[in-house]
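Researcher: Good morning. I'm working through a list of sequences from a screen, and I'd like to move beyond sequence-only analysis. For each chain I'm collecting a predicted structure so we can compare shapes side by side. This is the next one on the list. No need for commentary yet; just the structure.
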Amino acid sequence: MGIRQAQARRASQREGGTTMTRWTVYVAEAIGTAILVIGGVGTAVLAGDDIGTTGIALAFGLTLLAMVFVLGPVSGCHINPAVTLGFLITRRMTAARAAGYVAAQVVGGAIGALVVFAMASGRPGYDRSVDGLGANGYGDASAGNYSLFSVALVEIVATAILVLVVLAVTGRNPVAAAGVPIGLTLAFVHLLAIGVDSTSVNPARSIGPALFAGGDAVTQLWVFIVFPLIGGLVGALGYVALHGSENAPKSAAEVS
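Model: Good morning. Structure tokens for this chain:
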């Protein structure tokens, strides 16, 4: 009887799981994205001058690594709409599930940005319009005054690399085991792009800080939604070209 119950439970998960299971994965995605923003953007805002580009890149990478171990068995730990798009394109999840993931990620990113803003506001003289909140930008809003073309290209390439790695290392292995290569890849793409546009590769990471920073961060936000998603598409198509699309999910975190 116990075996039959376990089989029925696994079948339910493959078909979308119970209501609680569906809500659990969305909550996990929101929490994970909030923690990624706090760990990465928060480090850049609160300690960036002290630890520099390498320290910020490691903060993002280590935070994601930890979240993969914690949330991987629950939701797959996408915590990034571009990654979710990759899972959708490779047929590891349905459009309805992907939409729920993205909504949860955006909410989580906003919550994380709110926490970072609350922390930064405690510093005497802090002015979000001057000091920013780790928002991304191009032109005058870029750390290196990079053009829109350069920023778009960097975001497409960096996000494509990240999504390709995520899909490759989670396609045949337990999600938690993928934490190290995924975390290292996120750190690497941050080393590549921080000096260009403060690195997005994740629309949910960009939306929250932009909403609180205001100004150019909001008017330029579309760039850090559109081009990371294009990068996610490119990475997913690259994965399909190399490995083929996934006809069946590998875990309960990847079901419809």
